[in-house]
User: Fold this.
Amino acid sequence: MSRRRTTAAVAALVLAGVALRLWVAAAAEGKSFSDNAVVALMAMHALRGKLYAFYWGQTYMGSLEALVVAPFFALFGVGDLSLSAGLLPWYVWLAVALFLLARRCGGTAAGFVALVLCALSPPDVQFFEVTARGGYPAMLAFGTTMLWLTLRMVYEPLSDRARWNHAIALGTIGGLAFWTNWLVLPYFAVCAFYLLPADRAWPLRARAWAGAGAFLLGSLPLWWFNWRHGFPTFALASVPDRPPMSETLRWVVELGVPNILGFRDLHGVWALGWVGRALALATAAGVIGALWAQRRCWRALARLRIRDASPAASLWLLVAATISIYVLWLPSRFQVGRYLLPIATASIPLLAIAVSLVMARSRIAGALLLALLVVFYGAATAGIARDFAAATGRYTAGPIEKLAAHLERAGIRCGYAPYSEAAVTTYFMHERAILADYEERYYPRDEIDLRDPALILIDGDAAPTLRSLEASFSEARVGGYRIYWPIRYDGVARVPLPRAGWQIHASVADGDAALMLDGDPWTYWSAAAEAVPIVTVDLGAEVTVAGIDLELGERKKDGFRDLRIDASRDGERWDRVKEAGWDFPLRFRPDGAARVIPDDAQMVLFPPRSARWLRLTLGAANPGHPWSIGELAVFGVAASPVVAFADPTFTDPASPPARERRLWLESARDPASNHSLLALQALYTDSGDQRASAVAAALVNRFTPRTLVQSRFGRDLELVGYDAATRAGRALDITYYWRAKRQMRGVYAMSGHFTGPGTRFQDDYVIGAPARPTNSWRPGEVYKQMRTVEVPEQAPDGLYTLDVGVWDPRTREHLRLDWRGRETRTLLRLAVSAQEVRIEPE
Assistant:
C-alpha cells in the first residue's frame, strides 16, 4: 500500500475512534464527578492565566491534561462534552503511536488491526479516554511513543542525525511523561533495558546527554515546583497497611488484567457472561503458547543480545514490568485498576499481531477472529454509553443542581463541603459559588475569600458543635444536604490565659495529668471512656474565663463526643457552665469566620464568667476510642481586642528539643520497646550529640537476647532471641525478643507448645498485648515480652521441648518459617522433676 493510502486509511480509522468517543462522551454529559471537575476548574483558571504545575492537592500528577483542555473550553464553552473532547488529542496521538508500534513489531496488517482495536478499546481504557481525571490518556500516548522510538533506535539502521533526533525526542517525551504521571515508570524500565545492552556506550555518548537535557526540560515544571516547595513530590509517604504482595498478585491475575483486556466490564463482571470468561481462557492459553514459541527470544534477552530477539518481546516485557512494579510497590491500600493501564500499550498490539498471524494462514479465519473482537468490544463500547446514560446525578456527588440553586438564592458565595460536592458544585456553577473541601486541598486556598463561609454536610450534624462554640447559625436542608449559613461568632475577643501556677488533676491516670500542661501537643493524658474520667484544673486565682481548648495532636479520633463543664470560685460549690457536643471538626479563625480545619483540636466556648476551678466530665468519647488530651488551654477575654479570636500556641512537636523530651518519656513509659531509643540515637547522631554512643550502648544492653534465634515468621515478624531463667518450684521465666520486619496490618499471636513424655502443655499469647499489639509496631522495632510458665502439676517428670510458632487469631493461619513450609521452631529443652525445672543446654 502506498504511503498516501496508508495515511488515508490510518486517518479514517483514527477519526472513527474519535467519533465513537464523542458518542460515549455525549452519553456522559452531566455525569462528571469530582476528579473531572478539578481538571475542568484548572482549565478554567488556565484561560485566566493561572497556571499550576500539579493537580490541586496532588503533587505527583502534572497539570498537562488541564492545559490541553483549556483551548477546548475557549472554543466550545465550559461543559462536560468539551471537557471530554479536550482528551481527544491524546487519543489521536495514542492511536497513531499504537499503529506505528504494532507495525514495527508485527507488520502493516498488525498496525491496521491495532487501529481497529484501539478505536474499540476495552471499557477500562475507554473510560479514561473520555473522563479527565489525572493524565492517564497522556501517559498512554507518551509511553507508547517512547517504546516505539526505542525500538527504532535499537532495530533500525538510523543515520547519526536521526539518532540524535530520536534521543532528544525520547528525552523530551520522557520528561513530559514523568511530570504528567508516574505510571510511565514501566515504560522507562523497558526502554532502559533495550537501550543500554544494545549500545553499552550509550550513557557516554553526546546524544544521550542531549536526551537527558531534553528530559530535564520536559519535566521542568516538576523540578521548578519541587525546588520552590521543598521537594514534596519525592516525599512519598509509606502505606503501612497495603495488601500483601501475594494478595495483590492474585487480584492482578483474577481482576486487574482481565479488566484492562476488556474481558471484565467496569463493574468487574465477566463481559457478556460466558463470552468474556471464554475469551479470557482462550487468551491465557494463547499467552502460554506465544511465550513458549518465543523461547529463543527469551534466551537472547537473558544474554542481553537484544537485537537477536523479536521487537514484539518488548511488549511482553512491558506487561511484566507493569505487573511487577504494581505488585512490589503498590502505592495504595486499595487495588486500583488504572495503575495497570500501561498494559494496554502491549495488549492491543499483541492481539493485533495474533490476528494478523491468523490472517496470514487463513484470511477467512483471520477475518472471523477480527469480526468476533469487533463485535465483542463494540458491545462493550455500547455498554459504556448505556451505563453513562443510565447514571443518575453526578456519580459520587448528590443532587448538586438543587444545592447550586439554593446557594444562588441564598447569596452564598463560598463555603466548605465534602470533596465531591465542593469540586462538582463549583464547576457546575462556573465558580459563582466556590466551595472548598473540608481539608482545603483541592482549590487554591489563596484564591478563596472565606470571610463568610457556609458549611455543607451530607452525613452528620454540625449543630451540636456550633452550639458548643457559642455560635449563632441558621440551618437549611436541601436535597439531602444540611447547609449551615450564616454562621456568626459571638463577638467576644478571646485570648488564651497564661498557664503559670496552674494545677491539674484527673480521676484516672492522674500521674499523666501534668502532660496536659507541658507545652507539647504530642504528649498525652489518656483515659478509657468507661471510667467516666474527670479533669479538674486550678487556675491559681479567680479570673474571667470564656472557653477551653483541647489539643488532640496526633490522636485526632480521641476527642470527646459529649462533655460537661462546671466552674467554681471556691472549689466546693460548682455551677454548670455548659453541656457540649462535638460531631464535626470546626473552629473560628482570628477574624471570627468559621473554619473546618484543623481537626486536631476541640473547643468549647461560653459567655465570660469568673472562676478559679474548672471541671471537665466526659459524657461520651468517640466509639472505640479513649479520651485523650495533648494540651489544655483556657480562654479569657482580651483587655484591648486586636482580633476576634486568638489561638493558643504550643511548642512545635517536630522541634528537636520537643522530640528529645518526648522520646525519653516514651522510653520510660514503654521500656519493652526499643523504638524510642532508636529514634533518640538517630536524633543525637544527626545533631552530632555525644550522647548517641550512650544510647547505642543502652540499646545493646537492653535489647540483645542472651540466646540468639533469628527466625523469621512470614514476611512480617522475626524472633530475634530469648532470655530464659528458672524460678523456685516448677516455673520458668522467658523473655521473647520480637522484631517487626515491616509495618504489620495484623495482630499476631505466639503458640508455645511444651511437649514431653506422653503429654503437652502450652503458653499461647497475643504478642505485644494488651499495650502494644503487633499492628502498632513500627518497622525495625524490637519488642520484648516476658512470660512466666508454670509447669502443670499433672505433667510427669521428664524432658520437654518448647516449639514456638506465630499465627493470626483472626484467620487462624500460621506464618511459615521457610520455603519448606515449617511453622514452628524448637526453642529450648526443659528438664522437669518433682521439685524444679532445669534448662538443658542445646
